């Protein structure tokens, strides 16, 4: 049992039989809002800075969100030959948007999150993630991504990043074949989709489904990358890219010469993230 005399936040995984906890400061909970879509809370922790949760599940902390936001953005952008128009579905904390806009070649970055409450909370408690929100290339929209993608112009986007919550509630449809089919239509011929694809340890069946649905939807190539993310279940996370054309490595020289600082991403890390453990490789021969 957790030390009862101290103040802790815990995410308990009922299905996976695991829990993750962070000790809180005396300030404890700083924010709570029940929006039309979900419950947003922010806590002050002793060692991870601020913590945002949605419906009781960890979204991000000050200390380690860089791992996720860098790996959800830079691998796909350096895999695409010349990304100009980027759509982010979800990502309401604006951390992915900030990373995308570090790429000087990006001309348009649209962020479509269903819940404006998440962005409001991030502006207040994670202002460092919102520092690019006023970039003239950025557009923030508050809509269901499932609806947005259906109405998108065919072939309009070079990259679509799905930075969503878990496949429950409003995000459930973002993991299905119908959504991926709409992404195939909205992407240019050399366009690439990347989606946060949960834990290779705890959610391998979901990872298999994601690959299966992406290919049934019309993507001819799918590729999973894995990376550490301490505050997510198991601490080991992934994202999965999909393209209508075969993947042909990534722009290593451009990644090495990137004109911005990263804390986790590098061409070597990118290459390593593509090296999947044998059991994952085998499972993904779907
Ligand atoms: N890194 C987090 C994770 O892996 O769980 C995701 C962070 S981000 C805060 C997740 C966002 O997805 C939330 O802001 C939520 O509002 C948004 N979201 C969920 N379903 C959505 C939908 N159908 N359309 C657009 N945004 C959605």
Q: What this model shows, in words?
A:
The chain has nine helices and twelve strands. The strands form two sheets. Strands 8-7-6-9-10-12-11 form a seven-stranded mixed beta sheet, sandwiched between helices. The chain has a five-stranded antiparallel beta sheet with strand order 1-2-3-4-5. Strand 1 and strand 2 (18-34) form a beta hairpin. The chain has 286 residues and is α/β, with parallel strands linked by helices. 28% of the residues lie in helices and 31% in strands. The termini are far apart. The chain has two domains: 8-60, Spermidine synthase, tetramerisation domain (Spermidine Synthase, Chain: A, domain 2, Roll), CATH 2.30.140; 65-284, Rossmann fold (3-Layer(aba) Sandwich). The protein has helices at residues 65-79, 95-100, 116-125, 145-151, 177-186, 204-217, 252-256, 267-273, 278-283, and strands at residues 8-13, 18-34, 39-45, 50-54, 57-61, 85-90, 108-112, 138-141, 157-163, 187-196, 221-228, 236-243. Helix 5 (177-186) packs across helix 6 (204-217). S-adenosylmethionine is lined by residues 54, 59-60, 68, 89-93, 112-115, 118, 144-146, 163-166, 170-171, 174, 196.
The average pLDDT value, as a whole number, equals 96
Ligands in the model, by name, code or SMILES, are:
S-adenosylmethionine
Shape: globular
**Order of adjacent strands in the largest pleated sheet:** 8-7-6-9-10-12-11
Helix content: 25-40%
| CATH topology title of the largest domain | Rossmann fold
Based on the structure given, which CATH architecture of the largest domain is correct? 3-Layer(aba) Sandwich
Query: Briefly, what CATH class of the largest domain?
Result: Alpha Beta
- In CATH, the homologous superfamily of the largest domain goes by the name Vaccinia Virus protein VP39
The end-to-end distance, rounded to whole angstroms, is 41 Å
What is the alpha-carbon Rg in Å?
A: 18 Å
């Amino acid at each position: 049992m957790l030390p009862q005399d101290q103040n802790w936040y815990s995410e308990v995984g009922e299905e996976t039989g695991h829990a993750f906890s962070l000790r809180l400061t005396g300030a404890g909970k700083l924010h709570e809002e029940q929006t039309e879509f979900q419950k947003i809370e922010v806590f002050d922790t002793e060692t991870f800075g601020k913590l945002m949760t949605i419906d009781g599940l960890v979204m991000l902390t000050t200390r380690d969100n860089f791992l996720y936001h860098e790996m959800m953005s830079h691998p796909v952008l350096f895999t695409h030959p010349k990304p100009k128009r980027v759509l982010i579905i979800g990502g309401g904390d604006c951390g992915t948007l900030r990373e995308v806009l570090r790429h000087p070649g990006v001309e348009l970055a649209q962020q479509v999150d269903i819940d404006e409450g998440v962005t409001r909370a991030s502006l207040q408690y994670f202002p460092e993630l919102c520092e690019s929100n006023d970039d003239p290339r950025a557009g923030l929209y508050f809509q269901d991504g499932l609806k947005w993608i259906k109405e998108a112009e065919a072939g309009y986007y070079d990259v679509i990043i799905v930075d969503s919550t878990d496949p429950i509630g409003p995000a459930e449809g973002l993991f299905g074949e119908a959504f991926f089919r709409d992404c195939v239509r909205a992407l240019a011929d050399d366009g690439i989709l990347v989606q946060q694809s949960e834990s290779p340890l705890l959610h391998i069946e979901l990872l298999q489904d994601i690959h299966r649905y992406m290919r049934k939807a019309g993507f001819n190539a799918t590729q999973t990358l894995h990376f550490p993310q301490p505050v997510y279940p198991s601490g080991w996370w992934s994202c999965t890219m999909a393209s209508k054309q075969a993947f042909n490595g990534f722009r290593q020289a451009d990644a090495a010469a990137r004109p911005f600082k990263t804390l986790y991403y590098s061409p070597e890390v990118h290459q390593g993230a593509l090296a999947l453990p044998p059991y994952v490789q085998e499972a993904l021969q779907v």
